[in-house]
Design goal:
Elements: H1 4-40, H2 44-51, E1 58-59, E2 62-63, E3 71-72, E4 79-80, H3 88-91, H4 129-138, H5 145-151
Length: 154
């Protein structure tokens, strides 16, 4: 049976062989990359420019994730980015401009482009759909089936 020391020595020899093999393969890959770069006239700066750096989570022009604070409460020093539900200290304020952090204006923020399809009114399908849509557009009240049923005597 092998002893612990002999097994550890064997592991060290195998690890050294693995490191040497890895270094040989990586040097071959690096040489191939250098040849390709010279062949196409590229530099590392070209690679960095095309890599794009850090990717940000974007959906359209709406940047996701934590945002810089735009508003600060003078009493508690609590901050708010202007997204999501407004905290209690600013929720009832008529003029939020007095809470703006110095150096940041609301005009500096990019507007959020909303989906134009979501803003369209939903028109029900059916025989009276055109009448209902026209009446709603004109501002007239349209009785519902429940209202008509309540008025009719039984």
């Amino acid at each position: 049976m092998a002893t612990l020391e002999s097994l550890q020595a064997k592991i060290q020899r195998l690890q050294a062989q693995a490191d040497a093999l890895l270094a040989k393969k990586s040097s071959a890959v690096i040489a191939k990359i250098k040849n390709l770069m010279e062949e196409h006239g590229l530099t590392t700066a070209d690679i960095d420019a095309h890599a794009g750096g850090k990717k940000s989570a974007k959906a359209g022009n709406y940047v996701r994730g934590p945002q810089p604070a735009l508003y600060r409460d003078a009493k508690s020093a609590a901050t708010w980015s202007g997204r999501g539900r407004a905290p209690a200290w600013i929720a009832q304020a008529k003029d939020r401009g007095r809470f703006l952090i110095d150096g940041v204006s609301a005009a500096d923020r990019k507007p959020v482009v909303k989906n134009p399809v979501a803003n369209k009114a939903v028109v029900k399908k059916g025989p009276t759909a055109k009448k209902t849509a026209v009446n709603k557009a004109a501002g007239a009240k349209v009785p519902t089936k429940n209202a008509a049923a309540k008025k009719a005597p039984r």
